[in-house]
Amino acid sequence: PQTIYLSDYTPPTYLVDQVHLTFRLHPEKTRVISRIEFRPNPASQSREFFLHGEDLRLISARIDGQEVSPDMVQGGLRCDVPDAPFVWEAEVEIAPAQNTALEGLYMSSGMYCTQCEAEGFRKITYYPDLPDVMATFTVRIEGETPVMLSNGNPGATRASFAEWHDPWPKPAYLFALVAGDLVSHPGAFTTQSGRQVELNIWVRPGDEGKCAFAMEALKKSMTWDEQVYGREYDLDVFNIVAVDDFNMGAMENKGLNIFNSSCVLASPETSTDANFERIEAIIAHEYFHNWTGNRITCRDWFQLCLKEGLTVYRDAQFTADMRSAPVKRISDVIALRARQFREDNGPLAHPLRPESFVEINNFYTATVYEKGAEVIGMLKRLVGDAAYAKALDLYFDRHDGQACTIEDWLAVFEEVTGRDLGQFKRWYSQAGTPRLRVSDDYHDGTYTLHFEQDTPPTPGQPDKAPQVLPIAVGLLGPNGDEVRATTVLEMTEAKQSFTFDGLAARPIPSILRDFSAPVILERDTDNAERAFLLAHDTDPFNKWEAGRALAREGLIAMILDGAAPDAAYLDAVQAMARDDSLDPAFRALALGLPSQDDLAQTLHDRGHTPDPQAIWEALETLRQARAQHCQDLAVRLYAQYQVDAPYRPDAEQSGARALANAALALITRTDGGAQAQRQYDAATNMTQQLAALSCLLQAGKGDAATAQFYDQWRDDRLVIDKWFMMQIINADPEEAATVAKRLTQHPDFGMKNPNRFRATLGALAANPAGFHHASGAGYRLLADWLIWLDPVNPQTTARMCSAFETWKRYDDQRQTMIAQELDRILATPDLSRDTTEMVSRIRG
Ligand code: DPP
Ligand code: ZN
């Protein structure tokens, strides 16, 4: 396969002013008739005319009305064209019902839908399928289905056709079409300048009752973007459609967002509090793309983080405003470490702005999204809120309607602040997670923090230069009072020291407050200091972090030295959990333990070979000890945080349920599951039902509930996904691969639905001790299924290969087994470009 390089970027040779598309829908032979107005791009030297096209049957092509016979070449066609504006017309045939890759136009549960990002439009018709070719689109859909939607505003509509016009120039990746037997949950919104916008959430009949929450989230997002970023919606309608078969979470097509049904449909009976929160965030994310992504898009796919990092940052701000900012921050850092740090410390590490790719779908990564958002957060912290707001105004003002680069983005900050962001830009070009080592000293009232930064080598990048690190620091006095409020130290050198004067005693530092930079902080300290910070730190993130470090160090000692559970941790966590002045959601998070994967990475970083089974056993032992240590408290918390009021998925109720369910997990370890069974039997919402099921499964008492759950929910696909996942995630490591294999033989398992596939094989990878079981059964099962899925859906296959990305951490036997599986996948005939690239990078 061919590698594409950022350095090879050239402007498009021809630009497009207007596109007119007619679709004659048919499951096996849809006709797509295009009329495209091209003109030579003055910014391009070349006059070569190439249109992308894949899996298309060309029926006819014309230039300015004259029939032409283009050269059909790999990935598209070439044609001689005038060195002047001209009209291209083509008719092609495609087969949406055969499209299982879920890119381009395909069918899902009887409806037609599209996914064009990144390069799906070329499977619909011949086109310059590049993000910097922006055009206005008019679409006519001819078919029999009751509802036929495309981007923009509706035009004429009859029983047999619908017309749509999108006045905003856009790249083809934002094109969308949906047609089917759909019903709408309607809504309305008036923008700040008085535009009346019709809102719809379109779903299959029967799902109407699960749209109200997403509709409210949409309205809140629209209001928030006006208030916080001054961004207003710009069309008369905003449509959202729920689709069962979808590779991603959702897609921000202009005026017609398409959502994986799991990211939009919600009801208290079928969705957990976590599902509700995620839906609210994704609705916001896709809506916010209207400005950061659509009105201002990316010049090329290497700039993907320009829209994704910024939009993730914006949706995180939104969630922080709607819910609890500290809880959102802590949850995001947990996810960042679990996904992005893992990626950044393995064979798939890549810069925020990659320099090359084979398949761009493989770069919709935690790095581009989550690290991309962290970098925006650092920039904001460095320049301050006011300058950030000014820079964003300038960005929207200057670049509206353009396809931009990271350079354009940084330039507005440089102009507004007068700063040179040359060194800051390394965040976009250097892969890897910086290690930040800190030591300190104190003499005569002066306290000094000494920092050293160092970023380990990553594939293709042996040497790293120092990066700009905003380090938020506060100081506490020995009595626990804060003696220096948070201040941001700006580190730019490899080694740098900062002093604080006028201190009466040696302070206790609280470093990297609010996780002000995405680095791994290394500091030689002791459990006494960690317990002190857990008790006294005023920064909620660092308070949580201190508890997390206590737990982690105790677990590492258990794993490496066979130590007993750490009494300091047990006392400290109990004191924290019983402190009713703290937010219950925070306490629930603080009762969480480092994941198996976290511990494996920590052990690896410290020069040990992690043993997945030993990690799992240490966690079990600690959980058991903690349950005994906190037995009375757990019973008290469980009773105290029951929610009696009617179900609401808001921060307050979800926090109470999270803490009560954390208490239930403790209780289950001492009562054998009796309380969990009572909660399961009495549950009136999915949060309660699923938490109880999870406790029962972990206690080995889940058989009856598992059978009952299936009978209750067999007709609800999204709930049955949970049923698949729960049994595998909570399986004993000895059993996990067997359980997963058995479930792949269940009549409800199928490869065509990405959600179901992830709920089964993804769940196996999310049970590390099970997946890495010494028998190798987990590796074999996953590799088998990836090989089977690849011809059906390369994109989802390639994503799931990352289950193997940590393989070099493990012992020789495991490495040998994994290498065999990776080689077996690579040797598969006709392996997709997506999977070939991923497995080759992982194999190294
Ligand atoms: N659907 C993906 C997202 O919104 C890609 N744009 O992030
Ligand atoms: Zn996005």
TrEMBL record:
It is an enzyme of class 3 (hydrolase). Residues 213-427 form the Peptidase M1 membrane alanine aminopeptidase domain. It holds the Pfam family Peptidase_M1. CDD domains: M1_APN (cd09600). InterPro entries: Aminopeptidase_N-like_N, Aminopeptidase_N-like_N_sf, PepN_Ig-like_sf, Peptidase_M1, Peptidase_M1_dom, Peptidase_M1_pepN, Peptidase_M1_pepN_C, Peptidase_M1_pepN_C_sf. Residues 99-174 form the Aminopeptidase N-like N-terminal domain. Its cofactor is Zn(2+). Residues 528-842 form the Peptidase M1 alanyl aminopeptidase C-terminal domain. Residues 432-523 form the Peptidase M1 alanyl aminopeptidase Ig-like fold domain. Keywords: Aminopeptidase, Hydrolase, Metal-binding, Metalloprotease, Protease, Zinc. It catalyses: Release of an N-terminal amino acid, Xaa-|-Yaa- from a peptide, amide or arylamide. Xaa is preferably Ala, but may be most amino acids including Pro (slow action). When a terminal hydrophobic residue is followed by a prolyl residue, the two may be released as an intact Xaa-Pro dipeptide. GO terms for molecular function: alanyl aminopeptidase activity; metallopeptidase activity; zinc ion binding. The keyword Protease applies. GO terms for biological process: proteolysis. Its EC number is 3.4.11.2. Belongs to the peptidase M1 family. This is Aminopeptidase N. It comes from Roseovarius gahaiensis.
